[in-house]
Amino acid sequence: MDKSTPENEYVLIIGSSNMDLNIYSERLPSPGETVTGGIFRQSLGGKGANQAVAAARAGSEVVFIAKIGRDDFGSQMSTKLSQEGINTNFMLQDPEEHSGVAFIMIDKNGENMISVAPGANATLSVEEIEKHGSILRNATSLVVQMEIPMETINKIYEIASEGHCIKILNPAPLKPIPPDLLKNIDIIVPNEGELFRLHSLLGFSNPQTKESISRSDNIIMASKDIASLGVDYIITTLGADGSLIYYADSDKITRVPAFKVNAVDTVGAGDCFNGVFVSYLTKSFSMIEAVKAATAAASIAVTRKGAQESMPNESEIRQRIEEYNKIINL
Ligand code: RIB
Q: In whole numbers, what is the pLDDT of the chain averaged over residues?
């Protein structure tokens, strides 16, 4: 196994790898209720692995660091990720913990509920990350999500800050973060709920939802507070309503509309967005072009079932961007 740092530019993704056990049914159960008649599908997932696949299919060289179990799910994960052309040489195995597993329920409108047993993902340690210091310092860009321990996430950005990479955080699923972490991050990509929860977790009082204050003004207010802790850009994803890019230097936003499609499964759509966004940014596209590509790619992913398997390839993304440009002028 060649554990040397790649010579070319690369996207580094560090995060979770899960086996997704999906049930597609008419509707989601309420607490205590059983809904039967669903269809079962097993597929590869985990926010980190999904983003790695999205970035690799979008044409980037990707190094993925994650911790898996010494089990059949774990071997399927590393085999499939290597087949995607992802550098898995830095992936780790926990001798005792199982690989991450997610139980996912999806209704007929594509809405979902997810419960994760992180297993080995939760044992990715600070010491293990420190051993991979040079792969972090030499990356062109970095994306981390929150399905691994917080102290490990903190250390990742601390080490990456010794290099020159673009440092992106996808705060999903959101958990309390030390305010100091944000000074080592350039871009955060939350969804709307995560943005406001992050805002209050950081000790800010949430903007009042008044009729006189628009949704985007509320997002700008929350973004401005969060950005004051050291972040340059905040990209808030709004599902079918597209996304808003907040620029801390000018205190301005750009709204990037979504491409309208009929969603069948939104699992992994946010991961598709993050993976394609970092890929395009690393290929030196502008912030708006990278968000547009991510939006276009996510609009394809939601029309397919499964997480990793739903990620579009480079030519599909290019074609959707062309279609997008015909309808939406940015
Ligand atoms: O973002 C979707 C992912 O969240 C799923 O693939 C599941 O594994 C959970 O990590």
A: 95
